[in-house]
Write a structure and sequence with these properties.
The structure is a homotrimer of 392-residue chains.
Chain A: H1 8-15, E1 18-24, H2 33-39, H3 57-69, H4 78-88, H5 90-100, E2 103-109, H6 123-130, E3 133-139, H7 140-150, H8 154-169, E4 174-177, H9 179-183, H10 194-205, H11 215-232, E5 236-240, H12 266-272, E6 279-283, H13 288-297, E7 301-303, H14 308-312, H15 316-326, H16 342-365, H17 371-390
Parallel strand pairs in A: 1-2, 2-3, 3-4, 4-5, 5-6, 6-7
Helix pairs in contact in A: 1-16, 1-17, 5-6, 5-16, 7-8, 8-10, 8-11, 13-15, 15-16
Keywords (chains A, B, C): Hydrolase
GO molecular function (chains A, B, C): hydrolase activity
Organism (chains A, B, C): Nonomuraea phyllanthi
Amino acid sequence: MLPVDLPGTVRDALLAPLVDHHCHGVRRDDLSRAAFELLVNEGGSPAPPGTTHFDTAFGMAVRRWCAPVLDLEPHAPPAVYVSRREELGAAEVNRRLLAGAGVVAFLVDGGADGVGDADLLTATEMGRHGGAAADELVRVERIERAVAESAPLAVDYLDGLGDALAARAAKAVAFKSVAGALCGLDFDPARPSRGSVIAAANRRLSDPKRPLTDEVLLRHLLWSAVDAARERGLPLQLHAGFRPAAPGETSLPWVDLHRADPGRLNEFAGLVQPLGVPIVLLHCYPYHRQAAYLASLHPHVYVDAGLAPPHAAAASARVMAELLELAPFHKLLYGSACHGVAETGYLGALHYRQALGAALGARLAAGEWSPADAARVAHMIGSGNARRVYRL
Amino acid sequence: MLPVDLPGTVRDALLAPLVDHHCHGVRRDDLSRAAFELLVNEGGSPAPPGTTHFDTAFGMAVRRWCAPVLDLEPHAPPAVYVSRREELGAAEVNRRLLAGAGVVAFLVDGGADGVGDADLLTATEMGRHGGAAADELVRVERIERAVAESAPLAVDYLDGLGDALAARAAKAVAFKSVAGALCGLDFDPARPSRGSVIAAANRRLSDPKRPLTDEVLLRHLLWSAVDAARERGLPLQLHAGFRPAAPGETSLPWVDLHRADPGRLNEFAGLVQPLGVPIVLLHCYPYHRQAAYLASLHPHVYVDAGLAPPHAAAASARVMAELLELAPFHKLLYGSACHGVAETGYLGALHYRQALGAALGARLAAGEWSPADAARVAHMIGSGNARRVYRL
Amino acid sequence: MLPVDLPGTVRDALLAPLVDHHCHGVRRDDLSRAAFELLVNEGGSPAPPGTTHFDTAFGMAVRRWCAPVLDLEPHAPPAVYVSRREELGAAEVNRRLLAGAGVVAFLVDGGADGVGDADLLTATEMGRHGGAAADELVRVERIERAVAESAPLAVDYLDGLGDALAARAAKAVAFKSVAGALCGLDFDPARPSRGSVIAAANRRLSDPKRPLTDEVLLRHLLWSAVDAARERGLPLQLHAGFRPAAPGETSLPWVDLHRADPGRLNEFAGLVQPLGVPIVLLHCYPYHRQAAYLASLHPHVYVDAGLAPPHAAAASARVMAELLELAPFHKLLYGSACHGVAETGYLGALHYRQALGAALGARLAAGEWSPADAARVAHMIGSGNARRVYRL
């Protein structure tokens, strides 16, 4: 998996336990082939007749790398893989794959409320299965919905939101928002006026179960989250780039990809900087170069590659290499964005290590970096930066 | 051309005859050096004084790879190449290059009506020269123009357009639109109202010979094409990304590149999906990652790299590798976008095989894929997917 | 630094003296570690507590490649490097690094007026330190500000601007504009009406010391520069892509990156073409593929990679390789965008040679290009194109 001629210290640093600073719970139940295929595709539709979602980079990697974890030969056929998965049972599969990822701490987004959440492992369970610590990321849209459902009046909504965020901040390591998926990242970066929020909240309260797509309320939510995060010294994670849909909210029309370009957060980031709240950009692909640029510009902006390595799989080295063009090494984080099936978490860690290993190996072979620097950078990205940012 | 250590089955799959699902007729007449240079440049202007359009990746590839097909040494100077081309005559050159591409079926866009079309080989001739079957792609803007020129009233335009598309659908394998080049892909994805179409058609009928740039009429044309395609089970090809100009319509101001980003078709694709009409994205460069993402999200969206491999030439492996990051392997198609000179078709096939061969070779060397999977994927992209989508 | 198996002629062509067609003066004074770190980061803020701006690709390259120029071991620690820098003194450091870049002529942007300019080497000094010729690039925003500060009335502003540009054109090799950083490149490409300029100039004259961000006046400035450049046969350089901030004008809110995409200049470039004024796109990253496309389309558009190679450092080969996909070889220029510290100039040249050497080496190894062609292209990009465009 790693280049054969890496110095031992660099190899050790790459294989050291990771902090997975952003993941979701995986399904606790046994999955049919149809259900498994739906979960490994971002679109949520079955593959066209005569085709399979296994014929993707991700599917090839499942057969190559996850099959042996389930005692199968590498490249096992899809039917054999899914059948072995059922034979072992979801709990055993999850244990093997999550523990196999080599993670020391999972930061878990419990997701949006709604149908299906009970099918997902909780943060505590993710930690137990993976033999790791676990902390909770608080999805701010979930807080907002609870407040919207219970607030009698717009003023209650405003007060309640701040209180609820502050209360949850006390037990969390970070806030997370999927505003980019709900209304794009090209929003007006300024705090909305109280009057405009009251007006929008009045509309919101008439139908609080709908996903939040109102730009004024999302801006208000983000700024409220910044305020609560500031009090507690928490970072704010922002979904950016591909898969611009909120899990459990697939009934929404999806925002066009270019509107989720993290480069559009430049001015918002500039306004947040004086408040000292770190902003962490998730996924970012195919705008990861733009994200790396922002991380190089703003001292409080961080970035990960999220789902890009597990999905690009054998092709993930280039994505990591592109991130390393501009992103300061103290600004890169490891996050698997694991969701749906534990394979994402296993392959996320594997392809992250493989991609970073390829980048470091190339620099060492060319004499560009010293082995000590390569090992130090691997440690920073794999766990050190996350420990600093999330105060773990 | 291919990695030396590829397994025989993979090599055979790469070298097997291709379905070229999107190309244009090439010039049937002998070409002066000036004419040849103009045809191999997308801009349509001569190179600046003291320079030549041969000093491009494409020009280098012509000298390296096409020269031997014309019995010259590799790297023959431009003057020698053009002179040998004239010596052999256009017919012989076209035969050698088109047959040398190793294509079993050409799907040919006859282009817009207008000056110069008689200089281009027809679909039937492309097939005869290339020793291949040939089918026709129907450019919907051509249909629209004919209808606009003959319709006395706006209502006739509306009725006539539907009838003409239905009539042509009966003899074609797909529709193709260059709406992206004419008004961008950032159009309102909804069907336009009948009233707005009538109003726009009234303006259109006063000057039907102008290229169609009215957004309402282009949306109406696209949705009419979707309806006709649905009846016949045809796909709709959409020009995206670079070279956002319609051949024969170069007098138009060209739409800015970012407006031809195929990612902007996300919502349109979502609206078309329930109708079961496949959408095929052409070219896409430099937004091919966005196109691959759309193909991974929507079960009816397909993608090719079009002109990127022949133009990037020696650099085309990276473009293919980037497509393979997210595009499902059952969603990728081979298309040369051959136009102007048969060199495009020859180099399109050569660089496609070379680039895919490099990607497969790297995965096999790393043990990421099995040889059987690599051969299967090469077959799918080279011809299998096209046979399925176009029902060949 | 170069691939070991390059033919001697290609190696010689890569190592031949470069024309650095775009750079800035570097600091003439000794720099503390804090000052050095601020200058090597584009954001202008110190690194977060516990981190350092040395933990970047650029910082690693300084320690690897610049340390030996200052008689240190490769990979010297940051503290050792900065201390040795102070020990040698800024003049000696600048001499070693600028001379070490292997440049035969610097074209130097003197920058905006304002605080700190006296700390920077002048064009003449850059040449003297680097053992090279030096010519001046005229920043048009500087001309505009002088005119705005002295014009009593809007009509004086209009007349004075044209006169001042014409006067400076007589002594310069090119104009340069940072309009992309001040208001984006997505401006209305047409010449603004005289009435709109008069109205905007009246507002401008009430506060002439503010950076110019009015779109009408920036368009007027660009078109006035085009007119003056046309008279003298000068090119117009346009800042594009990353680092969309004007040095010395960091108090401005920075334009979002996507608005500095050079692809947005397509229509402006089309309008300028008949006037015969070359347009040179600077930096462009991460939109360098879009810039290369424009250079392939428009006969008068040129492109460089600017700050991308020194900043991406060990990762710069991919950026160069992407430029070479579509950019005609007679349209690429070498420019270090050297600024702040002479390390930028040294690493700019080193990583440019390294990246181009890697691209040429790969093409030669694959038999894609002949050695003679590779050497010719290296010569064109390194100096030949600049000599032609700037009439050196």
